[in-house]
Write a sequence for this structure.
């Protein structure tokens, strides 16, 4: 029997297992479908709008009311009026409003008489996105209010309209967001969360597929069908799962960059390659884990711990350089980390092969991991001498 | 007078205690379940705290291209370098060089001063400089934007006051006409927008829910595999007493997870110097309610588990989903209606919000009344569902004629 015939047998056998137990396809296809739908619809707006901003207006003049209307008219903010600061503060603590604007008594009067009233605003920074966006929104509005007063003064002094702009705003910033020009939070998260889920699903499902043979004592049957060639047994399974997960991954990539039109500076083909490498590298990690601990339940627990932590250690939210020094090296052990680096080069900068080949090589290096443990896994498959449950 | 054992209440209590003992023995003897409870329950909070220990990204490296080369642009660059957010790492002669550095990830942003920057300032026109932020992490963008905006606002004031002084105003007069409104921004609960304070507050409670769910589903799956049922009623009850089974079994998990919960919510934050602004007793009230709901929640959903490991395959992906559903990052007010409804299924949605508000924002119980109310409703609904699950399970079992495991030999106890 040639190597390919053996692989063919393993694949046919695995497909029969799929047909008998739906959990394999549920755990991969259904889970990935749910995750894709979730991350794409949950964050579909890209940037949140109408964040509740509490206003405690102790002044009650046309100036303060005008400020509230302007704030309400911004895309980000929606003004909620409160009678007292204590009520507003309770709602800020309870996370029901993102921020409080306190307009002091005599605000209008003090502005007109140049007594420089102090406007206070409070942010709940525990709800990160809402808090920081509200902070930015209110700060802009305060500066505009202040600017409006100055504009009136300049007009009264007879300064020509053409010069007022330069006098009011001597310095300005022109902001460019490379790789995500609309600041789409949904695209930012979905770009990495969905591949992150793919890494998790690959690791968990492959560990289970290999571990279930041990658990139900069917590993000898598997080995018998391939002349006790553990390389063929594992390669066969990996081959089938590579096809399955690569197809899932490619569908996801096409949905992200062709259907949702998320920004991608490079070409889709490069991301498809990255996705394929992510799948193969994650599979290798799965084989390493089950080979190292040939007990289905243990291996699954380790795989779960590893892959859930992987979402954080990839560094697409909190960058790796902000993590403790001891952990930075550990992040290299995640295929997703290298996929992310590859995505940054391809998706954000549109770099050529020269910039991202190290990541490709690292992901390929992962493929050597199974060779470390195949002997051990083969012995466990033959003798079934580990705890089953 | 009848002895307490013969009253309905006495029998009820006796049955519940027996079921409690039986379940406790199951859990303690199941190495796999105990590993999940102990290792995951105790290790995860520590790991996450460790990963996010320094949650503040400081001195994001920036490349500067200064085509203006005037005293103003140099001053702006110095001021940016002085902010906490930005560190000027490279000075480049042209944009090509800066772009290459950005691509090699040696810098995470570029600041560019065009050659007419100084001339426009001198001519009292608006002088614009550009920033280019690497959006691969929003924290880079946030740092670059905040740092340069602080500097810009500061410079605007400075230049305006300077000009008015030239017109003959005193410093105080100039300041009053430039800063018509003063403002102070207060970020009381997370002063530096620390990433760790915001994330850790949200996930601590979630860890409790997920660990309980995976542990319980493993225990239920084991019983199923051994062709027993988790839910069968003691034969002596002749088909009644569903409540006893649910409460007796639930008591075991409740006790275990109150211990784990106090560790996760009170000891772990103290270990890592995390803000603990709430009162211990308030947090304990929230925790007791949350753990209760989690028990009924897990009992309801684990009914669907048929094998020991299947929860990992089918539900592991829910952990990150649940984190988003707490509304800690994407604000609850912006949730699509369907996902808002979906989030009501999970105790973590309200438990995490309650914990963020109590522990980290220092609220009192009355502030989180809506969350507590929601948890109570969830608790009642899941209790009824858990009872229904036991009832249905028994109905099916009787049909199939599977042997009841919880045949309670009186002599054992």
């Amino acid at each position: 029997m040639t190597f390919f015939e053996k692989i063919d047998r393993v694949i046919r056998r695995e497909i029969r297992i799929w047909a008998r137990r739906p959990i394999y396809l549920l755990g991969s296809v259904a889970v990935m479908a749910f995750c894709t739908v979730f991350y794409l619809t949950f964050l579909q707006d890209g940037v949140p709008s109408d964040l509740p901003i509490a206003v405690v207006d102790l002044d009650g003049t046309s100036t303060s009311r005008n400020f509230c209307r302007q704030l309400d008219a911004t895309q980000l903010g929606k003004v909620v009026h409160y009678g007292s600061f204590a009520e507003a503060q309770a709602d800020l603590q309870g996370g029901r409003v993102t921020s409080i604007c306190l307009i002091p008594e005599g605000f209008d009067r003090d502005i007109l008489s140049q007594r420089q009233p102090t406007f206070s605003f409070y942010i709940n920074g525990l709800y990160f996105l809402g808090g920081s966006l509200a902070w930015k929104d209110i700060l802009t509005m305060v500066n505009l209010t202040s600017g409006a007063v100055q504009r009136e003064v300049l007009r009264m002094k007879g300064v020509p309209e053409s010069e007022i702009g330069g006098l009011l705003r001597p310095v300005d910033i022109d902001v460019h967001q490379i790789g995500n020009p609309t600041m789409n939070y949904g695209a930012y998260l979905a770009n990495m969360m969905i591949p992150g889920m793919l890494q998790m699903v690959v690791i968990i499902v492959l560990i289970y597929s290999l571990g279930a043979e041990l658990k139900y004592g069917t590993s000898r049957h598997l080995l018998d069908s391939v002349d006790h060639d553990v390389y063929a047994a594992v390669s066969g399974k990996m081959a089938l799962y590579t096809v399955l997960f690569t197809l899932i991954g490619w569908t996801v990539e096409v949905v992200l960059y062709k259907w949702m039109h998320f920004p991608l500076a490079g070409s889709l083909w490069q991301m498809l390659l990255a996705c394929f490498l992510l799948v193969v590298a994650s599979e290798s990690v799965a084989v390493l884990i089950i080979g190292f601990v040939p007990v289905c339940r243990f291996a699954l627990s380790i795989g779960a711990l590893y892959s859930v932590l992987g979402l954080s250690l990839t560094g697409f939210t909190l960058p790796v350089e902000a993590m403790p020094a001891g952990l930075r090296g550990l992040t290299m052990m995640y295929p997703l980390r290298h996929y992310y680096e590859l995505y940054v080069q391809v998706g954000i900068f549109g770099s050529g092969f020269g910039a991202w080949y190290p990541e490709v090589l690292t992901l390929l290096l992962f493929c050597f991991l199974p060779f470390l443990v195949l002997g051990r896994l083969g012995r466990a498959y033959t003798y079934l001498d580990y705890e089953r449950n | 007078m009848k002895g307490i054992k013969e009253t309905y209440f006495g029998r009820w209590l006796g049955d519940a205690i027996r079921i409690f003992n039986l379940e406790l023995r199951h859990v303690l003897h199941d190495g796999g379940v105990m590993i999940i409870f102990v290792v995951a329950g105790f290790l995860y909070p520590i790991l996450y705290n460790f990963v996010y220990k320094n949650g503040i990204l400081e001195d994001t490296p920036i490349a500067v291209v200064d085509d203006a080369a005037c005293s103003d642009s140099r001053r702006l660059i110095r001021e940016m370098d002085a902010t906490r957010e930005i560190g000027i790492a490279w000075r480049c002669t042209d944009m090509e060089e800066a772009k290459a550095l950005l691509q090699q990830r040696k810098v995470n942003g570029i600041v560019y001063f065009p050659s007419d920057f100084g001339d426009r300032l001198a001519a009292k026109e608006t002088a614009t400089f550009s920033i280019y932020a690497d959006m691969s992490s929003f924290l880079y963008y946030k740092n670059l934007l905040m740092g340069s905006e602080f500097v810009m606002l500061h410079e605007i004031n400075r230049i305006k006051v300077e000009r008015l002084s030239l017109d003959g105003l005193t410093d105080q007069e100039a300041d009053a006409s430039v800063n018509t409104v003063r403002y102070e921004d207060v970020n009381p609960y997370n002063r530096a927008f620390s990433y760790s304070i915001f994330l850790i507050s949200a996930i601590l409670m979630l860890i409790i829910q997920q660990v309980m769910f995976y542990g319980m589903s493993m225990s239920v799956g084991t019983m199923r595999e051994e062709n027993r049922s988790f839910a069968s009623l003691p034969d002596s009850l002749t088909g009644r007493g569903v409540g006893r089974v649910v409460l007796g079994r639930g008591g075991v998990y409740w006790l275990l997870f109150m211990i784990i919960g106090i560790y996760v919510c009170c000891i772990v934050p103290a270990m890592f110097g995390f803000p603990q602004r709430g009162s211990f007793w308030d947090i304990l009230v929230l925790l007791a309610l949350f753990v209760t709901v989690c028990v009924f929640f897990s009992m309801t959903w684990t009914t669907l588990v048929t094998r020991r490991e299947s929860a990992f395959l089918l539900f592991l992906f829910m952990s990150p989903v649940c984190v988003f559903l707490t509304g800690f990052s994407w604000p609850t007010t912006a949730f699509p209606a369907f996902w808002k409804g979906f989030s009501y299924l999970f105790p973590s949605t309200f438990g995490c919000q309650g914990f963020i508000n109590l522990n980290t924002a220092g609220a009192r119980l009355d502030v989180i009344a809506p969350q507590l109310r929601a948890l109570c409703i969830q608790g009642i609904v899941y209790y009824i569902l858990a009872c229904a699950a036991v009832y249905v399970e028994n109905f099916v079992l009787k049909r199939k004629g599977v042997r009841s495991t919880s045949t309670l030999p009186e002599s054992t106890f």
